[in-house]
């Protein structure tokens, strides 16, 4: 019996507004609300809402046999809550059916997995909590930003308690092997890997409405037929794609919704079942280890990190950003922490890619900037302001360890003060009870050291 | 030379002979036209079956004639005089053979004794852009008649409007097709207030041309829309750059200060948008004082710019070193951290390419023709002072930006070669001649 494993990514970055250098130090708000709202609402209306509606119908119609998985970035959830809360509601409805799995990833859709391990751990936890709060279930399977994965990252993911990871079926890694099996990490046999079937996923995500494609038009029975014809021993077809494929990247007129609507029925007719990633790794056996020494991703032909850290501009921006990571983590200012998350989103670095000079399409489609240089300048201006704010909170003249110990001292003092105050109150209450008429006129609260 | 030997068996009839009319030729140049003419002809001469005769108003004798033949209009007789060989040898023997003079003399086609000529029967030319430019253009075209009757050629190629009348004349005399090369139009020079005389000459040239070559799509659009030409006969061949010579490469930059230097280099005229540079400089200096600005060149807006700089109160950081020539240009470029060309309308604009060659990051306006072929530069609208200021700030503040543009810009511009442009022009010749 063959299995289809659907997983959909939902992500939108907080695009930055035009931020000139003379705004540095003057203006601490960085986001292009108008564009972000417009795009989010458009995507919600064209894609998320109708697609959710359809999935709900399918799940109900097939009595729970049709199952899918979603992965949200925290920044996308924040934007949905801001601009299209009805989408969250409709996902909650889906969650109630029990046929939907939610995956874990980094909150900021960041590159922290390759830049900063501590940050990575923090963000995954943050994201897990967020998903639990919204949908009432704790994610058990993990997918990293843009499916970035390597053996080293796998170790961290496993130590965070995940046993299933989703990544790309990159040619460079698989070679002659087929992505249609469950593999295990070469360094840790308990960590199971699901690899994206690039051909079949991209047939839907990128080629569906391409008139020049020899297989156009793609219809559900043909697609299922392709899956049936894969060798008998191949177990699972992992179809991983951007959720916006439905209705936004492939417009409604292309018939993408009808395709999706027809798919399960044809699949069941051929004896193909649907499972979510965690269910797949529970049910199916692994066929062997696979070693991924260098990070891979699902971007471009190269399937590496060159889209985000391929040139000097991108590397400089990333290094500068993460140079303040430790400091930022010490601070408690909510706005600063929020900006810290939003600035880490991988899209900002994608816009700086100079690969667009050679193969423009995708970069030009997503980037709000005219050129990678504009993207870099704008980002660096924002980052300069951000770093000034961090500096203002904790000047670099104090080194991290010293600062940390000072902060701990303050925190401990606060705790002591709190407990002492409590004691004073209790004593006062008991003393008041014992000698009722006496006017309580004890000096309240000694000079508590004020928190800066 | 080597290539010629590699292809020894080329029949005379297969050789493409072009008669070109130009106004400037290095080393004596006044603007971009001379540089472009030189580069293009040199790039074309790399084709083994290409022969070029280049006519200019006034050769100085030190032009490089290794890959083409230069004929000076000022050495072309229009009135018959009996001159002996030795006299001619003394006068211009170093760059033109007396025999050439005699050949030309045999083709005088009308009585031009009413014109002012010298003892050789030649008309004097300034070779520059004098006040009586229209008269000089007319005289040039008279000489072109003599040359066209003397020389053997397959195609005529006229560079810029000054030589269009000569091209038309040569076409009428010989019946050979005319290709004109639009290096600029009067719409670029005047921000729209065209001079009717110039427009008439330009339009006449385009109407009579069998094909029109423009240096950018920007110019091509102007030619199609403002001169009402059939798009089918208008092509774009982007300019290129000559590789930097050893001599230039060895020039040492002059740095007496740790401060960054932002340079504008060119004519200080309306077309080049100098005022946008001053305003952008003013913005940058409000945020940082580690930058200096240089506006090198001269022009009719220089005084106004000096006044503007004073009014903004940035005269201590903004410098006017005046017109730069020859090696000074490269010393200036090499000593800069940023090169800027905020031109309002630039048909091509070769100077940012030269800056990139010596590793200087460039900022150019989107209204420049060269923006069409360059990737590793920052492009802004010429009027967008904030964007220009932001770009300057970015390059002088973020080292990665400077390094990236410096390295990638140089790599990119090193691949923009005249040889490729020359091949495109050759294709157009073949197409026009139906070969």
Radius of gyration of chain B: 23 Å
Please report the distance between the alpha carbons of the first and last residues of chain B: 25 Å
Q: How many strands, what sense, and barrel or not for the largest sheet of chain A?
A: 5 strands, parallel
How many separate structural domains of chain B? 2
- Spatial sequence of strands, sheet with the most strands of chain B: 3-2-1-4-5-6-7
**Oligomeric state of the chains in view:** heterodimer
Question: How many H/I helical runs of chain B?
Answer: 17
- Give the overall silhouette of chain A: globular
Give the low-pLDDT segments of chain A.
Answer: none
Q: How far is it from the N-terminal to the C-terminal residue of chain A, by CA?
A: 64 Å
What is the CATH architecture assignment of the largest domain in chain B?
3-Layer(aba) Sandwich
Give the topology string of chain B: H per helix, E per strand: HEHEEHHHEHEHHEHEHEHEHEHEHEEHHH
| Number of helical regions of chain A | 19
Please state roughly what percent of the residues of chain B sit in beta strands, choosing from under 5%, 5-15%, 15-25%, 25-35%, 35-45% or over 45%.
5-15%
- Tell me the structural class of chain B: alpha/beta
Average predicted local confidence, pLDDT of chain B: 91
Helix amount of chain B:
40-55%
Q: Care to count the β-strands of chain B? A: 13
Could you explain how this protein is built, in words?
The complex is a heterodimer of chains A (452) and B (435). Chain A is an alpha/beta fold. In chain A, 50% of the residues lie in helices and 11% in strands. Chain A has helices spanning 33-61, 74-83, 85-96, 112-115, 117-135, 151-159, 171-174, 198-205, 220-228, 256-269, 277-283, 306-309, 312-323, 325-330, 334-344, 347-350, 361-366, 372-393, 400-434, and strands at 3-10, 68-72, 100-103, 141-143, 164-167, 182-185, 192-195, 236-242, 246-247, 250-251, 273-274, 286-290. In chain A, helix 1 (33-61) packs parallel to helix 10 (256-269). Chain A is globular and about 85 Å long. Chain B has 435 residues and is of the alpha/beta class. Chain B folds into two domains: 2-240 and 417-433, 3-Layer(aba) Sandwich (Rossmann fold); 246-413, Glycogen Phosphorylase B (Rossmann fold, 3-Layer(aba) Sandwich), CATH 3.40.50. In chain B, helix 2 (32-45) packs across helix 17 (418-433), helix 11 packs across helix 15 (385-397) and helix 15 (385-397) crosses helix 16. Chain B has helices at 2-6, 32-45, 85-92, 98-105, 133-150, 164-174, 186-190, 196-208, 217-226, 246-249, 274-287, 302-312, 327-334, 351-357, 385-397, 399-413, 418-433, and strands at residues 16-21, 50-56, 69-72, 155-159, 178-182, 211-214, 234-236, 260-265, 291-296, 318-322, 338-341, 362-365, 378-380. The A-B interface holds A 20-22, 24, 311-313, 315-317, 354, 357, 370-371, 373-374, 376-377, 380-381, 384 and B 283-284, 286-287, 375-376, 378-379, 386, 389-391, 393-394, 397-401, 403-405, 408.
């Amino acid at each position: 019996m063959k299995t289809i494993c659907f997983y959909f990514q939902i992500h939108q970055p907080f695009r930055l507004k035009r931020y000139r250098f003379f705004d540095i130090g003057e203006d601490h708000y960085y986001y292009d609300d108008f564009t972000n709202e417009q795009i989010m609402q458009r995507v919600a209306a064209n894609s998320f809402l109708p697609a959710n509606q359809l999935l709900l119908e399918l799940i109900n119609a097939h009595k729970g046999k049709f199952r899918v998985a979603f992965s949200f970035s925290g920044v996308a959830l924040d934007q949905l809550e801001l601009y299209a809360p009805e989408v969250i509601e409709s996902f909650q409805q889906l969650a109630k059916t029990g046929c939907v799995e939610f995956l874990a990833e980094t909150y900021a859709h960041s590159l922290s997995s390759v830049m900063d391990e501590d940050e990575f751990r923090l963000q995954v936890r943050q994201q897990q909590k967020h998903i639990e709060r919204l949908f009432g279930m704790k994610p058990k399977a993990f997918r990293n930003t843009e499916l970035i994965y390597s053996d080293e990252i796998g170790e961290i993911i496993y130590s965070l308690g995940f046993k299933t990871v989703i990544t790309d079926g990159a040619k460079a890694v698989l070679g002659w092997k087929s992505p249609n099996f469950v593999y295990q990490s070469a360094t840790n046999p308990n960590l199971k890997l699901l690899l994206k079937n690039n051909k079949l996923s991209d047939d839907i995500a990128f080629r569906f409405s391409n008139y020049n494609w020899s297989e156009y038009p793609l219809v559900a029975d043909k697609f299922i037929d392709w899956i049936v014809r894969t060798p008998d021993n191949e177990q699972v077809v992992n179809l991983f794609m951007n959720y916006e494929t439905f209705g936004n990247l492939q417009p409604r007129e292309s018939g993408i919704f009808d395709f999706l609507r027809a798919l399960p029925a044809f699949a069941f007719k051929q004896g193909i079942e649907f499972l979510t990633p965690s269910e797949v790794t529970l049910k199916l056996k692994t066929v062997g280890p696979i070693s991924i020494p260098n990070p891979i991703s699902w971007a471009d032909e190269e399937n590496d990190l060159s889209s985000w850290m391929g040139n000097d501009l991108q590397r400089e921006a990333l290094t500068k950003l993460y140079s303040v990571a430790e400091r930022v983590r010490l601070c408690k200012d909510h706005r600063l922490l929020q900006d810290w998350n939003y600035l880490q989103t991988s899209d900002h670095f994608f816009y700086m890619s100079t690969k667009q000079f050679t193969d423009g399409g995708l970069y030009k489609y997503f980037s709000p900037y005219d050129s990678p240089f504009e993207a870099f300048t704008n980002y660096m201006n924002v980052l300069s302001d951000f770093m000034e704010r961090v500096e203002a909170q904790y000047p670099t003249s104090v080194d991290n360890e010293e600062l940390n110990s000072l902060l701990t001292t303050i925190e401990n003092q606060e705790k002591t003060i709190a407990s002492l105050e409590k004691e004073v109150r209790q004593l006062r209450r008991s003393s008041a009870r014992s000698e009722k008429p006496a006017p309580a006129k004890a000096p309240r609260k000694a000079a508590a050291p004020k928190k800066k | 030379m080597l290539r010629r030997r590699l292809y020894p068996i080329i029949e005379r009839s297969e050789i493409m002979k072009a008669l070109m009319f130009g106004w400037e030729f290095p080393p004596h140049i006044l603007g971009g036209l001379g540089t472009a003419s030189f580069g293009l002809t040199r790039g074309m001469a790399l084709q083994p079956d290409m022969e070029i005769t280049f006519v200019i108003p006034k050769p100085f004798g030190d032009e490089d004639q290794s890959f083409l033949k230069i004929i000076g209009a000022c050495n072309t007789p229009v009135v018959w005089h009996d001159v002996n060989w030795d006299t001619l040898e003394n006068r211009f023997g170093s760059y033109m053979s007396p025999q050439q003079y005699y050949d030309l003399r045999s083709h005088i086609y009308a009585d031009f004794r009413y014109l002012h000529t010298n003892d050789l029967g030649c008309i004097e030319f300034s070779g520059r852009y004098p006040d009586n430019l229209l008269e000089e253009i007319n005289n040039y075209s008279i000489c072109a008649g003599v040359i066209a009757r003397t020389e053997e050629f397959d195609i005529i190629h006229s560079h810029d409007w000054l030589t269009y009348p000569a091209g038309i004349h040569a076409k009428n005399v010989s019946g050979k097709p005319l290709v004109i090369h639009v290096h600029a139009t009067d719409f670029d020079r005047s921000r729209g207030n065209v001079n009717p005389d110039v427009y008439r000459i330009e339009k006449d040239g385009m109407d009579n041309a069998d094909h029109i070559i423009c240096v950018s799509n920007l110019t091509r659009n102007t030619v199609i829309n403002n001169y009402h030409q059939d798009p089918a006969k208008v092509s774009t061949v982007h300019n290129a750059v000559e590789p930097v010579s050893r001599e230039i490469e060895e020039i040492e930059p002059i740095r007496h200060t740790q401060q960054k230097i932002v340079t504008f280099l060119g004519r200080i005229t309306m077309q080049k948008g100098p005022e946008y540079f001053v305003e952008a400089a003013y913005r940058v200096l409000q945020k940082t004082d580690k930058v200096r600005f240089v506006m090198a060149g001269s022009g009719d807006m220089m005084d106004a710019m000096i006044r503007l700089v004073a009014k903004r109160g940035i005269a201590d950081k903004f410098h006017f070193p005046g017109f730069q020539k020859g090696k000074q240009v490269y010393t200036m470029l090499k000593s800069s951290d940023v090169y800027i060309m905020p031109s309002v309308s630039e048909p091509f604009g070769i100077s940012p390419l030269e800056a990139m060659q010596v590793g200087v990051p460039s900022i150019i306006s989107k209204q420049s023709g060269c923006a069409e072929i360059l990737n590793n530069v920052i492009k802004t609208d010429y009027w967008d002072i904030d964007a220009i200021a932001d770009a300057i700030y970015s390059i002088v503040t973020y080292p990665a930006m400077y390094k990236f543009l410096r390295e990638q810009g140089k790599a990119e511009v090193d691949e923009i070669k005249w040889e490729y442009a020359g091949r495109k022009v050759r294709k157009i010749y073949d197409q026009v001649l139906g070969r």
